[in-house]
C-alpha cells in the first residue's frame, strides 16, 4: 500500500495538495539514528531536515504547553468556557504571533535552551553552540497555514549554516495541520539563488518609496516564495513531506529548505508551535535576533543601501 492511500486529502494555504505518490509523502523518522550523529549529519546533507520522533520528554513538552495556554488565556485568545490546556480558541482568533509569552517563561526556556535539545545541536554541529534569544511562538487558529518560504531571507546576516527547530506543543493531526518540507528543495539552488539571499529588512535608501516603507517598519520584500504550494512542488520536483506530530517530536532543517504548513481545518483548535534557531558559536550571528530585546524586523533592524 502506498503512503498516500492512507492519507486524507491535505490542504496548504487554501490549496488542495495533489495526493499522488510522487507529490506527497511522509517525513523520514530519524529517531532510529538518535545517537549516531555522523549518520544524522549525513541525513541533513542529503534530506535537508531531521524529524526526531519522540526525542524529547513528552511530559516536559506538555508542561511547556500548559505554560503557553495559560498565557494565551490571559491574552484573551482562548475560549474561557473550555480548559486552557485544550487550546480552544475564541471565534476569529486566526493567526496569533506572540513571541513575548516565551520571555521569562522557565518551562519554555528550559525546554528550548538547555538540556537534551541543546545537547543535540552541540553534538550535531560537533562544537559549542549558541542560539538566538528570540523565540517565534505561533498559535494558528482555523484557516490557512504558512505559505512556502525559506528561512534565510529573515535571518541571513550571520552564518548561513544555522538550523531551525520547529517544536509542536501537543499532538498535531493532519486536520490540525503541522509543518511540511519540500523534498530535496535545498539542492535546487538553480531555482533559489535569486530568492534566498535577499534580506527582508534591506531597502534602497535612495528610493523614496523604499525608504518610506522602511521608516514605517514595513518590508519591500516579504520573504514569501509563493502562495501556491502545488505550483511550487511542480516547479521544484520532489514531494511535500509531512506527518502527524506528537508532543516530544521536533523537526529541524537548514536555511535553504523550502517549507510551509498544512491548513488548520479544525473547528476551533489552535495549533501551537515555536521556531527556535541554533548555530555554531564560532560563526557570526544575525544581530537582529540576539540580546535582551532583539530588534528583529523593527526599524532598528532595517539596513539601507544604495541600489
Can you walk through the features of this model?
The chain is an alpha+beta fold and 307 residues long. It has one domain (29-305): Jelly Rolls. It has 7 helices and 15 strands. The strands form 4 sheets. Strands 4, 5, 6, 7, 8, 12 and 14 form a 7-stranded antiparallel beta sheet that branches. A hairpin with a 2-residue loop joins strand 1 (11-12) and strand 2 (15-16). Helix 3 (106-113) packs parallel to helix 4 (115-125). The longest helix is centred in the N-terminal third of the chain and has 17 residues, at 58-74. The protein is globular and about 50 Å long.
Strand proportion: 15-25%
Q: What integer value in Å does the Rg equal?
A: 19 Å
Which fold name fills CATH's third level, the topology?
Jelly Rolls
Distance between the termini: 55 Å
Q: What's the architecture in CATH terms?
A: Sandwich
Brief summary:
Helices cover 23% and strands 19% of the residues. The chain is of the alpha+beta class. A hairpin with a 2-residue loop joins strand 1 and strand 2.
Amino acid at each position: 500500500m502506498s503512503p498516500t492511500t492512507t492519507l486524507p486529502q491535505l490542504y496548504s494555504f487554501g490549496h488542495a495538495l495533489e495526493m499522488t505518490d510522487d507529490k506527497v509523502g511522509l517525513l523520514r523518522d530519524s529517531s532510529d539514528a538518535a545517537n549516531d550523529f555522523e549518520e544524522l549529519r549525513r541525513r541533513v546533507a542529503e534530506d535537508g531536515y531531521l524529524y526526531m520522533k519522540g526525542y524529547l520528554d513528552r511530559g516536559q513538552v506538555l508542561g511547556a504547553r500548559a505554560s503557553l495556554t495559560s498565557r494565551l488565556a490571559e491574552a484573551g485568545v482562548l475560549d474561557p468556557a473550555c480548559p486552557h490546556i485544550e487550546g480552544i480558541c475564541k471565534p476569529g482568533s486566526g493567526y496569533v504571533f506572540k513571541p513575548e509569552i516565551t520571555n521569562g517563561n522557565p518551562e519554555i526556556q528550559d525546554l528550548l535552551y538547555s538540556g537534551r535539545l541543546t545537547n543535540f545541536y552541540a553534538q550535531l554541529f560537533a562544537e559549542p553552540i549558541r542560539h538566538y534569544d528570540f523565540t517565534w511562538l505561533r498559535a494558528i487558529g482555523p484557516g490557512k497555514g504558512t505559505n512556502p518560504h525559506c528561512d534565510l531571507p529573515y535571518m541571513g546576516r550571520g552564518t548561513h549554516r544555522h538550523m531551525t527547530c520547529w517544536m509542536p506543543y501537543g499532538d498535531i493531526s493532519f486536520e490540525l495541520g503541522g509543518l511540511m518540507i519540500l523534498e530535496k528543495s535545498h539542492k535546487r539552488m538553480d531555482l533559489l539563488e535569486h530568492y534566498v539571499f535577499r534580506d527582508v529588512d534591506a531597502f534602497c535608501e535612495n528610493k523614496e518609496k523604499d525608504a518610506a516603507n522602511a521608516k514605517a517598519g514595513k518590508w519591500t520584500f516579504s520573504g514569501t516564495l509563493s502562495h501556491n504550494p502545488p505550483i511550487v512542488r511542480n516547479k521544484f520536483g520532489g514531494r511535500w513531506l509531512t506527518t502527524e506530530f506528537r508532543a516530544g517530536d521536533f523537526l529541524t532543517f537548514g536555511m535553504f529548505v523550502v517549507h510551509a504548513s498544512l491548513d488548520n481545518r479544525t473547528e476551533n483548535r489552535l495549533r501551537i508551535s515555536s521556531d527556535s534557531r541554533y548555530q555554531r558559536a564560532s560563526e557570526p550571528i544575525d544581530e537582529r535576533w540576539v540580546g535582551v530585546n532583539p530588534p528583529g524586523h523593527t526599524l532598528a533592524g532595517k539596513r539601507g543601501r544604495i541600489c
